[in-house]
UniProtKB/TrEMBL annotation:
PANTHER family: OS05G0587000 PROTEIN, PECTIN LYASE-RELATED. Pfam families: Glyco_hydro_28 (PF00295). GO terms for biological process: carbohydrate metabolic process. It comes from Setaria viridis. SUPFAM superfamilies: Pectin lyase-like (SSF51126). GO terms for molecular function: polygalacturonase activity. Keywords: Glycosidase, Hydrolase, Signal. This is Pectate lyase superfamily protein domain-containing protein.
Length: 445
């Protein structure tokens, strides 16, 4: 056997030394997922475009003019930073452009106008076929981007305030003609960083990257009242290579959910969500801390979620799909979760969520396999949870390892159906479907 060249051996030794010397406990971060934020070549303030941060002046045109100016520069000299000074910047929806940083200074608030009558509409997403809530188009997100590259939304923890209560009221009274707007939606975009910003009171989902790649969301705070309808924190939708970390989310629906389109529209569009890391998230809300679905028709795979610190939740972890969805949910790992207070610890269910219309094919069944939930510690839990597959599409290789859920009195037992997998060190005692299957080699501590 030929001996490896000396230089290779030397390189190996150096690499080993570097590994040994690297500081113990250094935290993993999202670096490398999107290009590191760089200094922009130019700087301009929204105040120079006729904007006024007095909380009264409507700044929609000022934002549009500033973005048009940045766009006309076509990324010259490393792009442009748009500075939003301290103050309250009332605005209607506006678009972003490529090679820009939207920078919210400390004390800067971008506040959505509550005059919803002139709010523009955008087309339905192709993977949904219609608005998520109502047929037809959807209201444009307050901050919107389509087909962009190299976009940062960051600053000194300034606030993007949706003033969503007018929308929530219209939704409750059923007077809305179309689907409510998100606070931030980026479509078909790559190399995106959203960091050090507070999102507050979104009319609908707060942050919605859809058909995007290379996305980092870090150090964000998302706040909406627990009784505000469908104010999900972050919904990743048909996106790949995404990392979310170090964020606090308290909202009216799921805190973070991974989606990929809705029934026949999502199947036809066929764009999965994959390569997703989520870590160090704290929060609470009436639905799930971490969710997959229920819209998963393009498929969801290769997801790692770790270090969730959840309190006062409806459900800790919720993986949800339905007959007619098609698609797949596979290679999902969730670990290191503390859960203080929840109706359900865990739900993995094949009968959740409605359909866009009556044209879906109920015989198109999702495939769910290789889901590992490990190192979960819960207290004040009412029901351990349920794992309910689909009769003709049994959920397989579902692994629960070191999942300990406690309640004040007697915690409701696991309920399982149409599922196989393994369970190790599970409290309360796992259902027989998981405890007794022979498929356990893959499920370890
Ligand atoms: C935003 O950009 C889209 C193109 O992606 C365009 O159709 C729309 O008119 C723009 N809307 C506003 C309010 O600028
Ligand atoms: C998040 O905040 C930490 C600490 O302030 C900082 O080191 C890190 O770079 C931030 N992350 C991003 C993506 O901005
Ligand atoms: C912004 O908030 C994050 C926590 O989300 C914190 O780590 C960071 O230091 C804050 N940055 C500033 C400039 O206040
Ligand atoms: C499963 O997903 C992880 C990311 O969480 C990835 O590193 C790994 O390669 C995936 N495994 C397979 C078999 O695709």
């Amino acid at each position: 056997m030929p001996t490896p060249p000396r230089s290779l051996l030397a390189a190996a030794v150096v690499l080993m030394l570097l590994l040994l010397l690297s500081p113990a406990g250094a935290q993993e971060t999202c670096s490398g997922i999107a290009p590191a934020p760089r200094r922009r070549g130019a700087w301009m303030s929204v105040a120079s475009f006729g904007g006024r941060g007095d909380g009264q002046t409507l700044n929609t045109a000022a934002f549009a003019r500033a973005v048009a100016r940045i766009e006309s520069r076509r990324g010259a000299r490393g792009g442009t930073l748009l500075y939003v000074p301290p103050g309250v910047w009332l605005t209607g929806p506006f678009n972003l452009t490529s090679h820009m940083t939207l920078f919210l200074a400390r004390g800067a608030v971008i506040r959505a106008t509550q005059d919803t009558s002139s709010w523009p509409l955008v087309d339905p997403l192709p993977s949904y076929g219609r608005g998520r809530e109502l047929p037809g188009g959807r209201y444009m997100s307050l901050i919107h981007g389509n087909g962009l590259q190299d976009v940062f939304i960051t600053g000194e923890n300034g606030t993007i305030d949706g003033q969503g209560s007018v929308w929530w009221d219209m939704w409750k009274k059923r007077t809305l003609p179309f689907t409510r707007p998100h606070l931030l939606e980026l479509m078909y975009s790559t190399d995106v960083i959203v960091s050090n910003v507070v999102f507050q009171d979104s009319p609908f989902w707060n942050i919605h990257p859809v058909y995007c790649s290379n996305v980092v969301i870090a150090n964000v705070t998302v706040l909406a009242p627990h009784d505000s309808p469908n104010t999900d924190g972050i919904d990743l939708d048909s996106c790949n290579n995404v990392c979310i970390e170090d964020s606090y989310i308290s909202a009216g629906d799921d805190l973070i959910s991974i989606k990929s389109g809705w029934d026949e529209y999502g199947i036809a569009f066929g764009r999965p969500s994959s390569g997703i890391t989520i870590r160090r998230i704290t929060g609470s809300g009436p639905f799930a801390g971490f969710a997959v679905g229920s819209e998963t028709s393009g498929g969801v795979e290769n997801v790692l979620v770790e270090h969730l610190n959840l309190f006062s939740m409806g459900v800790g972890i919720h993986i949800k799909t339905n007959s007619g969805r098609g698609g797949f949910i596979r290679n999902i790992t969730v670990s290191e979760v503390t859960l203080n207070g929840a109706r359900y610890g865990l739900r993995i269910a094949g009968d959740v969520g409605g359909h866009p219309d009556t044209s879906y094919n109920p015989n198109v069944l999702p495939v769910v396999h290789s889901v590992t939930i490990k190192n979960v510690w819960g207290q004040n839990i009412r029901q351990a949870g349920l794992i309910r597959g689909i009769r003709n599409s049994v959920f397989s290789r579902i692994c629960l390892s070191n999942v300990k859920l406690y309640g004040s009195a007697s915690i409701g037992p696991w309920k399982c159906r149409d599922v196989s997998g393994g369970a190790l060190d599970v409290q309360p005692s796992p259902c027989t479907e998981l405890a007794s299957t022979s498929e356990t080699g893959f499920c370890t501590t």
